[in-house]
Amino acid sequence: MLNAMTVLLGFQLIGEIITRLAGWPIPGPVIGMALLFLVLVLRRGPGEELSRTSNGLLSHLSLLFVPAGTGIMLHADRLASEWLPLAAALLASTLLTLGVSAVCLHLLVRKGQQRQ
């Protein structure tokens, strides 16, 4: 478990370093996650220890959102002043996600029917 946590936190650290050095507005953990995904694709999947540790973290995922929710409340004034663009972005991203999900589901169902 210690090795797997070191791998996960190492990729997050690499993402943070890239973000800070490049000055990108993308969160470091997102870049770290993309790099980890690339490495796992090249290795053809995670090892047993990384898989077990990741599943353990995913089972407690709701606890990981508490600090993020607290952080949002620190910016309540900004949320109040910029609620309209935020609401528009949330609505647009939700509709886009629903559309992309529907297209993917349609393609996967059609591909599944062709196999049968």
UniProtKB/TrEMBL annotation:
<keyword id="KW-1003">Cell membrane</keyword>
<keyword id="KW-1133">Transmembrane helix</keyword>
<keyword id="KW-0812">Transmembrane</keyword>
<feature type="transmembrane region" description="Helical">
    <location>
        <begin position="86"/>
        <end position="109"/>
    </location>
</feature>
<feature type="transmembrane region" description="Helical">
    <location>
        <begin position="25"/>
        <end position="42"/>
    </location>
</feature>
<protein>
    <submittedName>
        <fullName>CidA/LrgA family protein</fullName>
    </submittedName>
</protein>
<keyword id="KW-0472">Membrane</keyword>
<dbReference type="InterPro" id="IPR005538">
    <property type="entry name" value="LrgA/CidA"/>
</dbReference>
<dbReference type="Pfam" id="PF03788">
    <property type="entry name" value="LrgA"/>
</dbReference>
<feature type="transmembrane region" description="Helical">
    <location>
        <begin position="54"/>
        <end position="74"/>
    </location>
</feature>
<dbReference type="GO" id="GO:0005886">
    <property type="term" value="C:plasma membrane"/>
</dbReference>
